Amino acid sequence: MFRKLCLFLVIFTACKKDPAKPKLLSGTWQGRYGNINSPDPGDTAFGPLTAMYTIDFRDNGTMTVYDGRKEDASLMAHGIYSLKNGELFGEYTYVRGSTSTFSLQAILHKPDSLAGIWRIGSWGSTGGKFFLKK
């Protein structure tokens, strides 16, 4: 009887599945962005965050960025992102309305809240700040 009980416990614990990892970014996030006020190097005078910003994050590490609301944005971009230790890094290039490339870096403050900076080009100079909510 003891052997059967031990065998049952071994099989039961060996077949136990690890819990699924949460899909933190997957889905549509909306927020606002603003531009830096001065082109002078090192200037940190940011303007107000008034322009609409939407990003669709996918589980496979790709994203679609909309300059505005997803439904009616004249600018749309495709890109890639990674999330490591609560820090988001991404790069995207516009495919509708422009061909410019931008990059972003943000902190995941809560499971539904991101805030950070966007950069001109591929990790170029800072263009402004942004925030997103899921």
Overall pLDDT: 85
Major sheet: arrangement of strands: 1-2-3-4-5-6-7-8
Please tell me the total number of domains: 1
Helix content: under 10%
CATH homologous superfamily classification: Cathepsin C, exclusion domain
For the biggest sheet, the summary is: 8 strands, antiparallel, barrel
CATH class: Mainly Beta
Enumerate the spans where pLDDT stays under 50 for 5 or more consecutive residues: none
Number of helices: 1
- Give the class from helix and strand content and strand pairing: mainly beta
**Element-by-element helix/strand order:** HEEEEEEEE
Query: What's the architecture in CATH terms?
Result: Beta Barrel
Number of strands: 8
Query: Could you say which overall geometry the principal axes of the C-alpha atoms support?
Result: globular
Which fold name is given in CATH as the topology?
Lipocalin
Strand % is: over 45%
Distance between the termini: 54 Å
Question: Which radius of gyration do the C-alpha atoms yield?
Answer: 21 Å
Quick overview of this protein structure:
The protein is mainly beta.
SSE diagram, text form:
Elements (H helix, E strand, L loop, with lengths): L1 H13 L12 E9 L15 E7 L4 E5 L9 E9 L2 E10 L4 E10 L2 E8 L5 E8 L1
Antiparallel strand pairs: 1-2, 1-8, 2-3, 3-4, 4-5, 5-6, 6-7, 7-8
Write up this protein.
Helices cover 10% and strands 49% of the residues. It is mainly beta. The protein has an eight-stranded antiparallel barrel with strand order 1-2-3-4-5-6-7-8. Strand 4 and strand 5 form a beta hairpin. The chain is globular.
